[in-house]
Write a structure and sequence with these properties.
single chain, 339 residues, 2 domains, 21% strand, binds 3,4-dihydroxyphenylalanine
Length: 339
């Protein structure tokens, strides 16, 4: 038995493995329950009593040495692996999770794309505005309820400076710096002093449209909006224009589209009317053209404004407006497929 142990000790010193799999099978061969060393241990009871001390010591030495050798080899493999990782310069420092585009951005981009194809360019304006661009230049009478502090955020020390309540202010900004032909859309965030609930928020998003040129008519407006509705909601979509009132347009209308849930036959979503409202529009009031430096005797124009949240809700049936601004990853992930 001593000779056998000596031979194994030598074998262990020279032990090597090409990879971790081979190392594991060697470990099983030597150190597992049914391995060589355990078999020797079992044989130990047959060793004559006078040799027990010597053989026992050798056997322990063999066991310890074998365990130590396996640890050495294992460690060697591990450092090899981590060295390999260090050298992989293309590997990212941490797992990067790709984000998803926000549903409002998806829809805003779709709206922009549709109007872009019809020749509209994008115009921009400040969110912190003055009363002139938001209200006065847009033909709001001095005592119009929309100027009421209930709706408008303003700075107490500077009541003239407000957060814009609609993107119509960008119409004014564009007209005061350019002459027709003007064909722009103005996407942006707007603010209103509303109590936050599932159906109202103190900020939301709009896309404004403005077209000013010679001989622009209501027919032009209707055709552009019909085209928009078909591209946005499908070619079977119908539109309906209802007379309405806005200070900056005359005549004014609100546009409904045929309900895309019931196809116009009536359901809870469209309150059994078959129609859902999506935007406001009209012919730019001549007073607005004149106030912004455009000769209303030469030019006419149309304008429209829609809520991005409203369109997004129609497309994706989001029941609670607050979801849009809560940054809940689970909600945002639902729109992965639409990205
Ligand atoms: N500014 C209106 C709003 O915030 C929307 C709107 C209606 C814009 C009619 C327009 C328009 O340009 O012609 O409710």
């Amino acid at each position: 038995m001593l000779a056998k142990i000596e031979q194994l000790l030598q074998e262990i010193e020279g032990l090597n493995a090409k990879n971790t799999e081979e190392l594991e099978s060697l470990r099983i061969k030597y150190l597992s329950k049914k391995g060589i060393i355990n078999a020797l241990m079992a044989d130990f009871r047959n060793v004559p009593a006078e040799q027990k001390k010597e053989v026992g010591m050798k056997l322990n030495e063999l066991k310890n040495r074998t365990q130590a050798r396996f640890s050495e080899l294992k460690e060697a493999f591990e450092t090899q692996e981590s060295n390999a990782v260090e050298l992989d310069l293309t590997r990212t420092a941490y797992p990067i999770e790709l984000g998803t585009r926000h549903p409002l951005s998806i829809i805003r981009n779709e709206i922009i794309d549709i109007f872009h194809r019809m020749g509209f360019t994008i115009a921009d304006g400040p969110e912190i505005e003055d009363d002139w661009h938001v209200f006065s230049s847009m033909n709001f009478p001095e005592d119009h309820p929309a100027r009421d502090m209930q709706d408008t955020f303003f700075i107490e020390s500077h009541p003239d400076i407000i957060l814009r309540t609609h993107t119509s202010s960008v119409q004014s900004r564009v007209m005061e710096t350019s002459q027709p032909p003007i064909r722009v859309i103005c996407p942006g965030r707007v603010y209103r002093n509303e109590a936050i609930s599932y159906r109202a928020h103190c900020f939301f998003h709009q896309v404004e449209g403005l077209y000013v040129d010679k001989n622009v008519s209501f027919t032009d407006l209707k055709q552009v909006l019909l085209q928009f509705a078909k591209e946005m909601f499908g070619s079977q979509t119908k539109i309906r224009l209802r007379p309405s009132y806005f200070p900056f347009t005359e005549p004014s209308a609100e546009m409904d589209i045929s309900c895309d849930i019931c196809g116009g036959t009536g359901c809870a979503f469209c309150k059994y009317t078959g129609w859902v409202e999506i935007l406001g529009c009209g012919m730019v009031d001549p007073a607005v053209l004149d106030a912004n430096g455009i000769d209303s005797k030469v030019y006419s124009g149309y304008a429209f404004g829609m809520g991005v949240e409203r369109i997004t809700n129609l497309k994706y049936k989001v029941k609670d407006l607050r979801m849009f601004s809560e940054n809940d990853i689970r909600f945002l992930k639902e729109f992965e497929a639409a990205n």
